[in-house]
Specification:
The protein has 471 residues and is mainly α. It folds into two domains: 307 residues, no CATH class; 95 residues, no CATH class. Helix content is 72%, strand content 2%. It contains 19 helices and two strands. A two-stranded parallel sheet has the order 1-2. The longest helix has 48 residues.
Length: 471
């Protein structure tokens, strides 16, 4: 081996090791945070299956009465029958896999571009609406994190076909290409059955890649058509679920449809302005640099396609009767892909690009560090509070008490109201009302009649009444 080549490889090795080290840290951080996230909300409702057959039966009923997102819902029922360690280990791996998929789709010129990967980590943490409810909460992560992971796995061959100009299956023998086509059909079927707005955009991007292929004078390959067919088929099954119409039928409409549509557009735009405006500004800056200094029209076109996908995924929510912030997770990921695809195409030899990249990454990492400390502490504090709460309830059950009251002093969450803690939403916590749905779920788990949160003011009132009786 020539000495110059050896020295070049020796220089790359530390960077590669550092890259791998950061990936491992991401996995470990998600592993710990997943471990510290207790079951909550719909997790209790889905934790009733006893066998796989029972899970299938319950999911079919769920499809008819609640939602068509059968893959995530059935997965939740299965994981809730297994030891908790299985879920939070696999969940950490899926999140890490998502970061690597985004990195792969950035098509970085260097083998281990740590700048691009750190940008991905910071953006996912900072700009994902309700990070905790989309990546840590069990059913939330299975719906949004895992769903987006499935979709990116499905889109990767299309993306690389457009980027490279050749197919994943180009080097395969003829029989192998048909195997790949079947695999893409199955991948499309999974991607189309994830969630309504993100799966719709996956179909849009796959179709865009096929149109690009035709415009380039090439015949669309079998796997491209098979993947699109699989995605469309299961998407129709998902959106045609009777449960979707039953849920939509419960929405109270008090005005005309134009007024309702305007209200929803305003609501969605407010979510975007509150959570995605900074990421959109970053995209505009990077896009302008690409056009003015790099002149890579193809890379700019692909990045713009993902930005449009993000917009479509966002405003597709106006047709939904419910617009939770966590439903925008897919849109955030698409916009991050648009940004990193531009970033990976830059050469830091240009002074303006180098200055912009270093400044931007420094600001993002500073913000990431401070918010991660706050978010991690809050998740840990919530874990401690929930552990004490469940221990208290179990101790009361062991005493034979059927109606348990948990003192407020035992559950002090949340410390900070931040989107990184999946339980910052007060509506998901134990209430003073015994009939509140969270209270009922917890009571069912412990096999008791009821459970409620007893506030300190109630104890004070009881003490005052006791004192008056003594007097």
């Amino acid at each position: 081996m020539p000495k110059a080549m050896f020295l070049k490889k020796a220089k790359l090795k530390p960077c590669t090791l550092l890259f791998i080290g950061v990936v491992v840290l991401v996995f470990l951080a998600m592993l710990v945070m997943s471990y510290m996230t207790p079951l909550t909300n719909d997790d209790y409702f889905l934790a009733r299956s006893q066998t796989w057959a029972d899970a299938l039966r319950r999911e079919y009923t769920n499809y008819l009465t609640r939602t068509g997102r059968s893959i995530s819902q059935f997965s939740a029922r299965v994981f809730l029958m297994l030891p908790r360690a299985v879920f939070f280990t696999v969940n950490a791996a899926v999140y890490t896999g998502l970061t690597l998929l985004i990195y792969k789709m950035a098509a970085a010129r260097k083998q281990a571009n740590l700048v691009v990967y750190l940008f991905i980590i910071a953006c996912l943490w900072l700009f994902s609406m309700n990070f905790g409810q989309t990546t840590l909460w069990l059913i939330g992560s299975l719906t949004y994190l895992w769903g987006t992971f499935y979709i990116l796995c499905f889109l990767l061959p299309y993306h690389m076909y457009v980027h490279r100009g050749n197919s994943f299956s180009a080097a395969w023998p003829t029989g192998g290409r048909w195997v790949f086509a079947v695999l893409m059909l199955l991948a499309g079927a999974v991607a189309g059955w994830c969630n309504e707005n993100t799966s719709a955009v996956a179909i849009f991007l796959a179709l865009a890649a096929i149109i690009y292929c035709i415009k380039s004078g090439k015949k669309p390959e079998t796997w491209m058509l098979g993947g699109l067919l699989g995605a469309i088929s299961t998407y129709v099954i998902m959106i045609r679920a009777p449960g979707n119409f039953a849920r939509a039928g419960g929405e109270l409409i008090t005005g005309s449809w134009p007024a309702l549509l305007a209200l929803r557009i305003s609501h969605v735009t407010g979510r975007v302005q509150e959570n995605l405006s900074y990421l959109a500004i970053i995209f505009i800056i990077l896009f302008a640099l690409q056009l003015v200094l790099c002149h890579d029209k193809k890379r700019a076109f692909v990045a713009l396609s993902y930005a449009i996908a993000a917009v479509l995924s966002t405003y597709a929510m106006i047709v939904s009767p419910l617009i939770p912030a966590r439903a925008f997770f897919g849109a955030t990921v698409f916009l991050i892909i648009a940004c990193v695809y531009l970033l990976a195409g830059f050469s830091l030899e240009h002074k303006a690009i180098k200055f912009t990249t270093i400044t931007l990454l420094s600001v993002l990492l500073l913000r990431f560090t401070t918010t991660f400390i706050i978010g991690f502490y809050d998740i840990a504090k919530t874990y401690e509070d929930y552990s004490k709460m469940f221990a208290y309830i179990q101790a009361e059950v062991d005493k034979g008490i059927r109606d348990v009251e948990v003192p407020e002093a035992i559950i002090e969450f949340p410390v900070y109201e931040n989107p990184w803690n999946p339980l910052y939403d007060v509506g998901w916590q134990l209430h003073s009302d015994r009939e509140y749905y969270v209270n009922r779920y917890i009571a069912d788990i412990f096999g008791i009649d009821s459970v409620r949160r007893r506030y300190a003011v109630e104890d004070l009132r009881l003490l005052e009444e006791a004192a008056q009786e003594v007097e």
